[in-house]
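tool_call predict_complex ligand=nicotinamide-adenine-dinucleotide
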Amino acid sequence: MHRPILIIGACGQIGTELTMELREKYGNEKVIASDIREGGDALMGSGPFELLDATNYAAIEDVVMHYEIDEVYLMAAMLSATAEKFPMRAWNLNMSSLFNVLNLAKEGKISKIFWPSSIAVFGPNTPKEDTAQSTIMEPSTVYGISKQSGERWCEYYFKKYGVDVRSVRYPGLISWKTMPGGGTTDYAVEIYHEALKKGQYESFLAKGTKLPMMYMDDAIRATIDLMESPSEKIKVRSSYNLAGMSFTPEEIAESIQNHIPDFTISYAPDFRQQIADSWPSSIDDSAAKEQWGWEPKFNLDQTTFEMLNNLKK
Ligand SMILES: NC(=O)c1ccc[n+]([C@@H]2O[C@H](COP(=O)([O-])OP(=O)(O)OC[C@H]3O[C@@H](n4cnc5c(N)ncnc54)[C@H](O)[C@@H]3O)[C@@H](O)[C@H]2O)c1
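tool_result ok
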């Protein structure tokens, strides 16, 4: 019998699908969803939900005690593009929510944490192709600075206090169930919606901008596999590199044209181009593969097939 799980930030792009998958796996009543706002019907209707502010330690502690929570997945954060507009709010949310959960574990009130990092921990001086697990990390965005600091604190809490915290550096995530929440890779979701609605898309990233991406099913499977792995296999306690595919806006457009031949793409790069230019093009995830058996399943064409078929319904 799995002990109860709390998901903080459950109504977002990842949290929604993660909650549904964990409920399927461990039972609806075992997975408590929480957020500062209500979520979609499927999530709200399938199990317990609590309105909860991730920056409020006492409120999280109350929920943890009430449901006898054992594991926390912390998905609440301000994402890259939005964080550039509200730097201090992003820093406060991203760091205080993490400290709240780390400190609950330090005090023995929960036993395991999942906290996601991002490819945004890398910066303009990082080698761009096949970016290694350990390399130069000089993030130039507020979001990246918060994720890199978070990684350092996770490793510190593991080494110093034995906190069982696990993390992956998600690439840009592509999904059809929930819209993305203000990231630099959101174009790779919007493009499918617009392809079906209008037959054309204006990309906010320029031609040639190659970024690491992943289909949501792979991301959810990686997350749960990492959390279910025996502790001794998890050698990296900052955050694991994780790769699915890498592509440019023109490559995703070509992949869509295989299904919608008249689809066209145009380019009008905005402030997000600078963020994208500071990130890697492809990621070396051999540590995750070797240590806990990670293997991606979806390439670009499979992702396009899934996205268009599901969005058409
Ligand atoms: N989606 C991606 O492509 C991607 C890539 C890399 C890393 N990540 C990371 O994964 C995590 C989840 O990302 P996402 O894409 O689902 O984000 P999202 O913006 O879609 O969802 C975040 C959720 O957190 C909630 N939230 C915001 N402030 C809160 C607060 N104070 N208390 C409680 N909830 C709050 C929001 O209401 C939202 O439902 C984040 O840490 C993000 O940095 C995401």
